[in-house]
Specification:
Elements lengths: L2 H17 L2 H7 L7 E4 L4 E4 L14 E4 L5 H13 L2 H7 L2 E3 L3 E6 L7 E7 L15 E6 L4 E6 L10 E15 L4 E8 L9 E2 L7 E6 L19 E8 L5 E19 L4 E4 L2 E2 L5 E2 L2 E2 L9
Antiparallel strand pairs: 1-2, 2-3, 4-15, 5-14, 6-8, 7-14, 8-13, 9-12, 9-14, 10-11, 10-13, 15-16, 17-18
Helix pairs in contact: 1-4
């Protein structure tokens, strides 16, 4: 067994111990006095205490809880515990801790205020900063690739936020032949690794085209600092097929970042189900003499 597998097994065992505490059962919505035997991404399995109804007479007397919390909600709860492992440690000591809430949020659509720093093959890139019928343009003939970048969006993604998705809004159209290559993409200056490109289906009359979405990470696992003004830029690439010419016009570019952030109450609330102000000892040690909890 390799080291990473050993660590995963250790974490899973700790999670099961937590799920079988009164605090853990309350957290996952498990009935009292039921032994949890397995937790997956989508369900929690615990012993019912009833005989198995398997016709061959074998198998554990197990019920699989789905929808309580189940599925997506359970994945969110498991994500909580990844970010706040001390909650488990305290629960094993029967110390109730007020977890922050993880709330879905987004930056709203943000427009660029910089362009051409990383790729600079279009004309009048600054015209894509606002919707005013002045256009950034790219003309391509005979497979000539035209790429241009836009940056400085001012997202202000909170520190430590979990990134859920990236969406781009492009107000645009084309004339001439249908573009052969027509991609939007984004990149971090810190690593210069492309995300997975998304196709921009330019219309023949001006309209808004959106690519990406609230759960689309473009094939990457981004973190909050990827979206700083010093790091993030997006770019568009256009290419005409052989013996053809296309011209793309972009009036306005906007980008939105979807994320999840922690907010709300924190701190120890109860110990052994007593209000913290009433607690005199922890593990039979006078509270004034407790220097640390575990470790």
């Amino acid at each position: 067994m390799n080291e990473s597998q050993e660590q995963l097994d250790k974490e899973n065992k700790l999670l099961l111990k937590f799920a079988n505490t009164p605090i853990g059962r309350h957290y996952f919505g498990i009935p009292e006095n039921k032994k949890v035997i397995k937790i997956t991404d989508g369900s929690i399995h615990f012993l019912t205490g009833e005989l198995s109804k398997n016709p061959k007479g074998y198998g554990l007397p197990v019920i699989c809880v789905q929808g309580s919390p189940g599925g997506y909600d359970l994945k969110r709860k498991l994500k909580f515990l990844e970010f706040f492992p001390d909650f488990i440690t305290l629960a094993l000591l029967n110390i109730r801790y007020g977890l922050p809430l993880l709330l879905n949020a987004d930056t709203g659509y943000k427009s660029p205020s910089g362009n051409g720093e990383n790729f600079n093959q279009w004309t009048n890139g600054a015209n894509a900063y606002t919707s005013d019928n002045n256009y950034a343009t790219a003309q391509s003939s005979d497979e000539a690739l035209k790429v241009h970048s836009w940056s400085t969006f001012g997202f202000n993604v909170p520190s430590g936020a979990i990134i859920n998705g990236i969406q781009m809004s492009i107000e645009c159209y084309y004339t001439g032949n249908v573009p052969y290559q027509k991609y939007a993409n984004w990149r971090c200056k810190s690593d210069s690794v492309n995300a997975n490109p998304e196709t921009v289906n330019y219309p023949t009359s001006e309209n808004i085209v959106t690519v990406g979405g609230s759960t689309d990470l473009w094939g990457r696992t981004p973190i909050d600092t990827d979206f700083s003004d010093a790091n993030f830029y997006m770019f568009l690439s256009v290419e005409a097929d052989i013996d053809e010419t296309t011209t793309v016009y972009v009036d306005h570019i906007q980008v939105k970042v979807y994320y999840m952030e922690a907010t709300g109450p924190t701190g120890v609330k109860t110990i052994n189900d007593l209000a913290i102000a009433s607690v005199k000892t922890i593990n039979n040690t006078a509270i004034a003499n407790v220097k640390k909890i575990q470790g």
